[in-house]
Every structure is written in structure tokens, then in C-alpha cells.
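step 3/5: co-fold with pyridoxal-5'-phosphate
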Amino acid sequence: MNEEDGQYFYHPLENIEDVEIFYEAVERQHLTKAVSKERPYTYWTIELYDQKNGIRGGGGLGVLAADTRRVAEDTGVPFALITPFYPSETHQKMKNGDIIDEHIPVNYKDFGFKFIDKVNVKCCNNLCQLDVIEKAFKNTRIIAITEPNFGELYSGMSGSDHRLYQEVALGFGGYAALKLLGLKPAIMQLNEVATFFAALARLDELARNGMDFYEAVVYTRKHTLYTNHTLVQAAEADFSFEQFERFVFPNLKSLAVKKWLKDKFVDGHIKLSSVTIEIAELRSGVSKLHARVANYRDIAGNKVKFKAVTNGIDMHTWVLPEINDFYEKNGILDMYLAPTADYEEKLEQVTAEKIREFKKIGREKLNQVLKTRPDQYGKILKFSDEDFIFDFKRRFVDYKRPELPFKDAERLKNILSRRNAHYILAGRVHSGDEVMSGKLKKLLETVDKDDYLREHVHYIADYDEELAYGLSSGSNVAINVPIVGLEACGTSWMKDIANLNLLISTHDGGVADGSINSYLNVSGENESEELDMLYQRMEEAISAYDNDFDLEFLIKRQLETFLPVISGARMLKDYLDYLFPA
Ligand SMILES: *Cc1c(COP(=O)(O)O)cnc(C)c1O
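step 4/5: write C-alpha cells
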């Protein structure tokens, strides 16, 4: 078939009945459902948070990607994760009350990646050469594409040429890399729409290699899962036709695919979510609540349904090994660290004494981490077993409300002073986010003005995996207060619960998978009611630690509800059940 032929095979996917009949035919003839070594589960992500392997992410999206691969490794699922290797990363530090960004070069050779070959993508009338590098594990691998000028994660504005270049390079370059390695994807999971171009590259390959265009679309759709982490489509940046002319169309060989894509522009612009919905028949959201409320429409204007697959975490990565051993030895979790059939009864073994014992181990871990992580005054903190610690650790974005507990500084001070408690804040402000860096500055000024708060509220810069681990294992109470309706899932709170911390939270994201009575809930008609309840919960948490019965009750209740949610093995099983129904 030559390129022009593609034209004749173009049919818009309008007639649903036709599509259904066609699916059946395709099903019989072409679909290979099994995942195998040569046909791995492929996972596409613009962000991976896996510092051990040299790739630093920005937040939950990247942590999820890293955890998904680790769980696949642990459970023996053939799995390939495809992502960029960014040659530079940003770190942050405090200087005279301001957050300063530092850019640090990173070399993949230092992290055990090996060079495979080069692949090309076309952009702006040039051929851009990308290095394909790979790090293989037992049954999983990280395949990365990179080049010296690839730039940093999320550098520039979304909707900018550079972002489009990075996304196109990942999609077309990453797909070429798979071919180079002799791999065919059993499934393509797109971790958010920045990875759309990978599915487009597949569609183009099928269509130009003789498959009827219509058939190629159906085939691609049936093998592509779009995982959405965002709530409102309107908030997404779009790209212009002109940008696609420079970066996207030159990479397509099939005229039919080009035409298909051109038809998706509205007023000369395109949102990647709208085409991702078209190219992926399988769609998931990252918690029960999020899958229900994510407001997305397809091009025809119909509301998109998302299957709820709540995020989980890799327990090996985020939970103290002593606690995992305890869960396993007592039959609470199985060998994959997923809950056993009778885990609820087995939770009887969780006693206040045990909780305190594990807190001591976690406290040591936290002190170790803090040795190299000074607070806002350049001071190195060290906590004793007796110290009481609240923490707030997450990206500093508006909806997560890092400043909420400081709205009534006097009351916060009274609560902390009841137990001489500390409050540790950790979180990165996105580079260039003036609003949030302003809020952080103001918050730290409030703290600085007060003699008591100055000694008890600590901000640790450059929030990362190490700090997340240290805090979830070594503090007592975690605070998570996103504006209800805005958190897709969140995973920090899972690390806290698994490490036997008390959770104070609004009923949002994955927390809302459980009931409102399963943790220390914060709710209210408005922010001031929520704030009042947050302070009450902080007092309750302090009291609970003074009373074995209460502590045991609250921790067990959290585990009972959330262990099945938290388990990364549960998450991967949910995905496999959805993708490959029996
Ligand atoms: C776990 C983790 C996250 C996830 O944060 P949420 O706000 O709960 O989604 C982000 N960043 C780091 C460094 C983490 O370890």
C-alpha cells in the first residue's frame, strides 16, 4: 500500500453499530491478549519519580509510575516503562527566606542505563536524534529516550513548543525504541495525555503497514488505556495547528492518520485529552471519587466514563521493612504485600506497644534523613522518641492548602504547646509559581514573628522521596487537607497509614474510597468550619497518643479500611482485571 492509498481507507468513527460489529471481527482475528516477554505491558509516562534510577519527578504522577513498575517487578508481570531521561533536574534551597532553584546535570551512565542506539524524530524541518537507553531488571525494564538538550521535566509553559517537542520525542521516539528492542506492546497504558503520541505512533505504524485504517483505529483503541489524573478538561493547555505542522504531522507516514488527526482540531486548536479519548477505548481514573467526578467530554460531546482504579503504593519502597515484616509474619499481608483474606482479624496483633516500637525505629530513620536537610534557619533538627511531630508534606500547590493550619496562628500555637509538639512542613513550589512562593514566604514570616512557633515549626526545602519516607515513618500525625473535589487520589497519605501514623484529612481523592469514619476527618460547610475541625482533630490526635486504647483503635481502623486500597499489588491486579477480563 502506498501512502496515498491511506485516503481511501479513511472512515470517521461515527456509526457505533459498525464499530461494534467490527470489534468482534478484530477480536477474532487479531487480538493477542496475553502479556509476555516479547509483548510486555507498556507504561508511558512523561514523568517518573525514581531517584535511585537517576530520574527525578515532580510529584504523585511520577511516584505512581515508579511504584507501578516496582510492583510489576515484584509480581512477575512483564513490563516496560517508557519515559524521558532528563539530563538536568531542579533542586531547591532556602536562601534569606527565599526559595532558590538550582539546576543539576544528571548522567544516565551513573545509574546503570546502557546505550542501545539512536532514533530520529522530525521537528521543524530537522531530524532530532535521540539516544535510546535501557535499564533492565528481572521482568521489567525502563526504556528512556534522551539527548543533551532535552531540557528538564515540565520546563517552560504547558502548551509551549518545548513541551510539545518533549511529548513528541517520547511518543514517536519511544515507540521506535520499542521496535528497536523487538518489543510489541500487549497494552499501552498512557499515564496522562502528554503520552498521547505513543498511541498515535502505533496507529500510524499499523495504518502504513497495510492494515485498513478503520481496523487500525479499532485495534489501537482496544489496546490503549488512558489513565486520567486531572479533574477538569478546561484547565488543560492546547496546541495550535501550526505547532502540529512543525512537530507532529512530519512524523506521520499514513495520510489517513494525518487526516484523522487534522479533523480533531477545533478552531485551529487541539487538546490532547480530546484525541487521547478518541484513541483509547480503555479509560481509568485514579480513585473512586475521581473516576466519578472527572468531567471530560469526547469530541461528539458525550461525557466520558472512567473506570476507577485507585492508586496504590509499592509497600517495599515506602514502608519501614520492620513494619512490612510484621504485616507478613502476622498474616496481615501476603508475600506480595497485599492483604490476606482474613487480614481484618489478624490486625488484632497491632497493639499500642507495637505501634510505639515502630515509631521509635521510624524516628531514627527520620533523624538520619534530617542530618543533611536543614530547616529554614539552616539548623539541623534531631528529635527524641518523646517528641510529638505533625507533618505536612506535599507539593506546594494552591488546592492542597499548605497555609490552612496557619490561618489562626494563635490557636495552632496553643495546640502545639499542649504537648510541646513540632510541625514539619515539606514541599516544593513549582518553579515560577509566584503565588505559592509568596504564600510560603508569608507563612514562614508568621512563624518567624512568634518565639514559640519559630522553635516548633520547621520548613524543609527540596521535598523528595527520601524526605517523604523519613516523615511518613518518623512523624506521628500527617495532615492532608486538599479542597474537597480537587485531589485526584494522592498517595502521601497512604505512606502515612501504612507506617502507622494517624491521618487527619479532608474526604477527598483516594481517602474518599473509605468511609468518613475511618480516619480523623476534616469537613465543614466552609473553610472556617474546616479549620475549626482541623484544630480539633489535631487535639484529638495528641490525646490519642496518651492513651493506648485510643491509639490502637484509631490505627487499626485506618488499616482495616485502607490496607486493601494502599496495596500496590491490588492496584496492578485491578488494572490487569480491567484490561484482560477473564
Ligand atoms: C508520595 C510522594 C508524592 C505524592 O504526593 P501526593 O501529594 O500525595 O500525591 C509526591 N512527591 C513525593 C516526593 C512523594 O514521595
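step 5/5: annotate
The first strand starts at residue 41 and ends at 45.
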